[in-house]
Each structure stands twice: as structure tokens, then as C-alpha cells.
Amino acid sequence: MKVAVIGVGYWGPNLVRNLLQIDACEQVVAHDLDESRLKGIIRHYPTTAIAHDLDQVLSDPAIGAVVVATPVKTHAEIAMRALEAGKSVLVEKPLAISSSEARALVDLARSRRLLVMAGHTFLFSPPVQRVKRLIEAGELGTPLYVQSSRVNLGIHRSDVNVVWDLAPHDLSILWSWLGEHPRSVSAIGRSQNGAPADVAFLDLSYPSGCLANLHLSWLAPTKVRRMTIVGSRRMVVYEDTNAEEPLRIYDSGAEPPNPDDLSAPGGGFTWTYRTGDVVSPRIDSWEPLKAELEEFLARAGRGETPDEREEAAVQLVRVIEAAEESMRGGGAPVSL
Ligand SMILES: NC(=O)c1ccc[n+]([C@@H]2O[C@H](COP(=O)([O-])OP(=O)(O)OC[C@H]3O[C@@H](n4cnc5c(N)ncnc54)[C@H](O)[C@@H]3O)[C@@H](O)[C@H]2O)c1
User: Fold this and answer.
1) Nearest CA to 233 among 193, 277, 182, 176?
2) 2-120 topology per CATH
């Protein structure tokens, strides 16, 4: 099928580049309100067709799927129009700027027997998938807490704050690892001169008892993309910026005193610490964005409609709304 990419600013050209490598995509059609962006696409990817308005995309029956990479506030309207025109849609993260819009998108896709999928690219990342398998196999024991730092001197967006921009990555990864959604969130953030917040700290608590802390910032001296997951058996440090060694698995732990176990070190009256091997597993390498697009086109081609992954994408938007509510309330916890 022909696939249209709507919005070819910073991220859209990556979508075009990857779609051009996918067999299921016969041709890429690009549309953007800014003509200069379209000229850049033709210069770099000359086989791409150009559509000068959205109606040209929506009225073309050969275009079976649409990928939306425009500012977050425009996601729902463009995706709705594409669904109404009979196209399946991949919407870049986050699915929409409000949970009601995200809900409406998923409901509309179901009623039209089409797919609307959220572009949570990290779900297709090899190290993220490896950690998921480690957790599912019980290698880490019970997940106790996760700490994430996603900071750098990043592009300050004017349309959304840093939580809307970066938290979708952490929240989607946490959903895939823990298999649950937070039951409460508290958040604080700060901004400069009334611009959208450029630093935020989120605390999440999950029904299982697992805790997570996210540090999100566009204002930091170095680029850090690190998640530490502490389990009752092992601990993992995932560093996305470390191509050589993205995962380190620590056979470390601490057991509380157990006076019934007299054979334990300290006669069962002291904490027992374990510091064993540190393993850096070999991780396969592929481009997550290409895998995401392949999955989208395969699901759309099979005629799939939204499932629990899209329900999770709606809930993720709800968590961000709750984080903003908490930020407005000075960090008071908001239940979900
Ligand atoms: N998955 C990821 O890792 C990842 C990374 C970066 C950005 N994103 C997402 O991609 C989306 C776009 O981000 P970006 O950084 O490319 O933004 P951007 O501002 O650089 O680009 C957006 C483009 O959309 C165009 N546009 C705006 N409104 C439009 C409309 N109504 N119709 C057609 N074109 C329109 C603009 O002219 C611009 O060229 C956002 O949702 C963002 O969250 C995802």
C-alpha cells in the first residue's frame, strides 16, 4: 500500500526514511503545511511523492495508511479525519493531547474496523524487550522500584511541556515491563519565564507495590537516558546512550533480618547483602522505528483493530494529565 506521512519536521523524515526500506510500503507520500519541509524531503528522498493538502491524501484510495508526526495538539483532528476517510493511522507519541481525544480515536477506529496505533518507539527497542523477557522469566524477582533519568540540553517545545514530550517513553516502557498502570502520580516541575515546564520529577506508584521515579528535563548539562530497575533477585541498569553495553545485570540484593533462620549470617539478626556477578548480555541490534512501522503496516494489513496496546496508550495520556494536575497542585498525589 501507499503510506502517507503527515508532518515532516524533525521526526517525520525518520519515518519517511524507514518506510522507504519496508517492502509492504509501495510508495511514501509526504504532506506538511510548511512547503520548505517538503522541499527538504524531495531533496533527501527523491522517490517520495508530495501532497500539498491533507484532502489530497485522504481522497487517494491507494493510500491505505497514514502516519501522523505533527505537533501533539493536532494529532487527534488529523487522525480522526484519516480514520473517517478509511485509513489506518499510526500517531506519533503521545496519542493525543487529552485522554478524551485519545479515547475517541480508539473508539472511532474500532467502529470503522480500522487500526489507530500510538508510536511508542521504545516498545520496539532491543534492550527494552530484553528487560521485559528477563522480568517475565522471573530473573529479576519481584520488581521493587524503577528510577529513570531522561535529560539533556534538549529542544524546548513551545506547544507542550517536558512531561508530554518525554514521559510517554518512560510510561510506555514501564507498562511493558510491569504489565500494569500506575494507580497514583505526584509531580513537580518548573519553567522559565512562563514557558512550558522544562524540568519535571514524577513519582508513580503501581498496584503491585512497585514504585517509579522519573526525572525528565530539557535543561541538563549531559545527555542521560538511564533506567535502573531493582528487583528482589537482581537489578538492571539500562543505558540507551551506551551502544556497546546498553544493559548491565547485577546479581545484587539485600535480605532483611530473619530471626527464624539461625543459619543465616549474623544469626538471622542482621541484613544479608549479596553482591555477585555483573553481566552485560549481547543485545541484538535493529532500528526500533523501522520495527514499529513494520508492525503497524502488518497489523493494518491484517485488518486489526485496537487492542490492549491502544488501551494502554489512552491510559498513558491519562497518567500525563494526572501528572499535570499534580504539578498544578504543588505535587499533591493524584489517583488514577
Ligand atoms: N517516537 C519518538 O521517539 C519521537 C521523537 C521525536 C518526536 N516525536 C513526536 O513526533 C511528533 C512531531 O514532533 P517533531 O519533533 O517532528 O515536531 P516538529 O515541530 O519538528 O515538526 C512538526 C511538523 O508538522 C508540521 N505541521 C504542523 N501542523 C500541521 C498540520 N496540521 N498538517 C500538516 N503538517 C503540520 C509542521 O510544519 C512541522 O514541519 C510529536 O508528536 C512528537 O512527540 C516522536
Assistant:
1) 277
2) Rossmann fold (3.40.50)
Backbone φ, ψ for residue 240 (5° rounding) = -70, -20
Give the residue whose CA is nearest to atom 25 of ligand 1.
7
Q: Domain spanning 123-287+319-335 has what CATH number?
A: 3.30.360.10
| pLDDT per position as a tens digit, 267-310 | 788 898 999 999 999 999 999 999 999 999 999 999 999 999 99
Q: What is the pTM of this model?
A: 0.97
Choice among 67-76, 242-251, 252-261 with the minimum mean pLDDT = 252-261
The CA 11 to ligand 1 mean position distance, Å, reads 6
CA atoms of 259 and 92, how far apart (whole Å): 54
When the pLDDT of each residue in the chain is averaged and rounded to a whole number, the result is 96
Measured from CB, residues less than 6 Å from any atom of ligand 1 are 6-12, 31-34, 37, 69-72, 74, 92-93, 119, 121
